[in-house]
Amino acid sequence: MNNIRRIAGAIWIILGLAAAYFLIVEQAIPLFAKGDMESLVPAIIYTFILSPIITGGMCVFGLYALQKEYDL
Amino acid sequence: MKTTMLQNEVSEGFDEKKLRKVIAASSVGTLIEWYDFYIFGSLSVIIATKFFPSDNPTAAFLSTLATFAAGFVVRPFGALFFGRLGDLLGRKYTFLVTLLIMGFSTFAIGLIPSYSSIGFLAPILVLTLRLLQGLALGGEYGGAATYVAEHAEPNKRGLRTAWIQTTASLGLFISLLVILATKKSMSLEAFNDWGWRIPFLISIVMVGISYFIRKNMDESPLFAQAKEEGKIVANPLKESFGKKLNFKFVLLALFGATMGQGVVWYTGQFYALSFLQKVANIEFEQSNYIIAISLAAGTGFFIFFGWLSDKIGRKGIMLAGMLLAICTYRPIYQAMYELADINLKTEKPNSRQVRADYHMIDASVNLSKVTRTIYSYTDGTQLLEEKTEKVSHIPSVQREKAVLKKTVHVGQHAFWMLILLVFIQVIYVTMVYGPIAAFLVEMFPTAIRYTSMSLPYHIGNGIFGGLLPAVATYLAAKANSANEVAMAAGQAIPYDKPYLEGLWYPIIIGGVCFVIGLLYINGKDREIND
After folding, report:
1. Structural domains in chain B, sorted by start
2. Is ipTM beyond 0.90?
3. Any B CB within 8 A of A38 CB
């Protein structure tokens, strides 16, 4: 079971990167492109707050799993 | 000697009366904070007209900032700021401060003159107070949950803290009730003019009562003990997030529990309401009654699942709630859609009522024609179709598209079936949310508990849950536009149920959280005196 926990760590890292792609490319960039002030707020929040938290957190979590930190 | 006495108090000699007082003081305060936070959201349409006129770009910008920043940015910051204070100064003083900040902000919103009276100062003040609300909410929950858990008997921690868990749903329920009662007690014009301020203003009475109850409480015995033994850490933030040993549990709490809990919670309460109003077109009052009755019926299950988690463990219940939710969301929402779908109903013969009114738009010859058609169906459902079009001799005005608004008032059978379907979702909410306070408290040591449990809770709820409307709308809009493109090209539509596409967000996030929780959460740690 611990092997599965460690191997799954790679999946969490990939998911973290996928979240960054979705938040920045799919959500934030079209909003930045609109250029109006109303779209700018969510675009900034997606890029500079949500993306680092979700992607960073998921990647570190995956890394810890790979490093056997979550072995039971 | 004193330490031993304190330990005994925690492990053996529980004073039931005192414990009830602790639970009541904590729960009532947290309930009021949720109430305060929700009335802003529930009255957002009126608030927007009073403080954020849409024809003014700067005011609209401030409005967006108020919506996004309070949930996404400020709540986690509140968790960090007040969590740190709670681990340094104590739980009691910190959640007294959050209560006062929330109460003051809410009351003050009710007093702010409108944009038409004081101009830009109005939206700036509202934004500032909304941010203070978010900050206070970020600090409140962790304090209340920790305070109750640190007073509770080890074998009843789930049951005791479940009272705190009821507060979020009850806060929403009471906010809906107060708004509906205020609305009913006056004309629509009076409510839109000044009546909307009442739900904000009465908050100060509730906060005042709660403040005096909390003020007379003692500090948490475990925190007092840790303080006496010199176990308080100088920098709880560094301890929580700078040390791998603790930080890995913060991440596990977030991705293995609160992330999934957040989306199940938001789907069962907020997305359900939004779906009823915007997709199923059910009228405002009826849709609010559906949610309010479901919440009232389901709230007791927070206590039940909290109690059950003491008997059979927290992990299994939370994960079962997540699994049931992700497996049944699509059929539940499909059934909700069909219950309000007038295409599936039989219209009563000779029952159609049509009325047309003309209104002068401006000083020119342009008129607005509003045609109201009421369709009645055999199951008691009524559809009000309101078509607004401009009547003019000017060709450009003639070409303007008519605006069509549909409002459905469902019949008795559909009404109760919708309550049942929302109630099922509320049960999922109670399964994932009921035991989570005890689960989070047990994950972290006393010295950094307030800080460490607050952040994953508010990121899970504020960010993953709070993103739900934006992402769900995006997914549904994407499906709709793909269908339009296919139809224009004469091809088969790729999405036969585009209105269900938004559900992929809670299903995927809940699914990932379920797998992480299943794989990595131990679920056997019940020790909090560490």
Report:
1. 2-342+413-520 (1.20.1250.20)
2. yes
3. yes
